[in-house]
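Human: I would love a firmer grasp of how sequence relates to backbone shape in proteins. Could you go through the record with me and say what the backbone is doing? Here is the record:
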Amino acid sequence: EQKTIKTIKGVSDGITGVRLIQDNIQDLLIREREILERASEHNDEGTASLMSDLISDQEKLNWMLTAYVG
C-alpha cells in the first residue's frame, strides 16, 4: 500500500497547519513501526535501534504539537 504525505496549499491558519503535520506524523509512525517490526524479525539490530529512536522522537514531537493545539 502506497501512501503519500498530505499537503494543503494556502494554509494561513497555524492550527490547521499543525493538525496537518500531526496527521502526517501519525502516518509516518505507522510505517516506521512496521519497519521496526520487520527489522526485529530479521535480527537487524542497527535498523531496529535507528527506528526505535526515530519513533520515540516523533512521538515526543507529536505530543508537544498536541499540547500546542490544545
Helices lie at 14-41, 45-69. DSSP finds two helices and no strands in the chain. The CA atoms of residues 1 and 7 lie 19 Å apart.
